[in-house]
């Protein structure tokens, strides 16, 4: 009988606790909220939280790289093209070795506009000459179109060798009357007794023999030089 009574006591839920009832649970929850609220009030603005997360080392490294890239980009933008060129060349020599002499540009093949005109000039342009036009030929053709092709200017300095040079007049020569109202010999400025001549000019241009009829206005002395071998 005694054993049965003890079991009944145990089975009837005789165990009791201050924290097992609902009233006790509500009281404990209120105390936790109050404590959390007090901690928030006492926490300083610059103070980190108790359970704040620490950034990974790779995040810091990536941020540093981005900041360095921004600074480098801003520095390059602030330089002009020549300064950037010198910086890149200096960096290349620093990292890969070498000397500044290796980067010096050779001026052996440099050409001026006058050099290009001399190489591609034609006394007369024909339709076949305008095929496969390069920028050099276009430059020479543009200069040719600006010339006046009514009268020529002659070089008679080698008339005894039966060698003559002819070229078309420029705008300044047309305005001044050179070659029409003044002797067409480039070394003569006489204006009296001028006579017109039509000459069959035979010449070699770019390895090809050509000829053209040109007109000249020459004084009596220069006319004698022009016809020296046909007098």
TrEMBL record:
Region ranges (Disordered): 11-69
Highest taxon in the source lineage: Eukaryota
Biased composition (Basic and acidic residues): 60-69
GO function terms (MF aspect): phosphatase activity
Matching InterPro entries: Folate-sensitive_fs_Fra10Ac1 (IPR019129), Histidine_acid_phosphatase (IPR050645)
Basic residues compositional bias, start-end: 47-59
UniProt-listed PANTHER family: ACID PHOSPHATASE-RELATED, PROTEIN FRA10AC1
The protein, known as: FRA10A associated CGG repeat 1
């Amino acid at each position: 009988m005694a054993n049965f009574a003890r079991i009944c006591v145990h089975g009837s839920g005789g165990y009791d606790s201050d924290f097992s009832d609902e009233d006790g649970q509500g009281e404990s929850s209120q105390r936790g909220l109050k404590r959390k609220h007090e901690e928030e009030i006492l926490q300083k603005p610059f103070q980190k939280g108790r359970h704040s997360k620490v950034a990974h080392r790779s995040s810091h490294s990536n941020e540093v790289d981005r900041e360095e890239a921004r600074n480098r980009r801003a520095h390059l933008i602030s330089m002009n093209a020549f300064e950037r060129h010198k910086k890149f060349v200096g960096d290349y020599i620093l990292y890969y070795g070498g000397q500044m002499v290796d980067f010096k540009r050779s001026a052996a093949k440099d050409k001026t506009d006058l050099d290009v005109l001399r190489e591609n000039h034609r006394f007369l342009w024909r339709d076949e000459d305008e095929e496969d036009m390069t920028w050099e030929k276009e430059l020479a053709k543009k200069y040719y179109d600006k010339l006046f092709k009514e009268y020529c200017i002659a070089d008679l300095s080698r008339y005894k060798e039966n060698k003559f040079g002819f070229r078309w007049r420029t705008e300044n020569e047309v305005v001044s009357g050179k070659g029409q109202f003044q002797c067409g010999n480039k070394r003569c400025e006489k204006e009296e007794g001028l006579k017109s001549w039509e000459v069959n000019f035979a010449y070699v241009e770019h390895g090809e023999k050509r000829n053209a009829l040109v007109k000249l206005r020459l004084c009596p002395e220069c006319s004698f030089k022009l016809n020296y071998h046909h007098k």
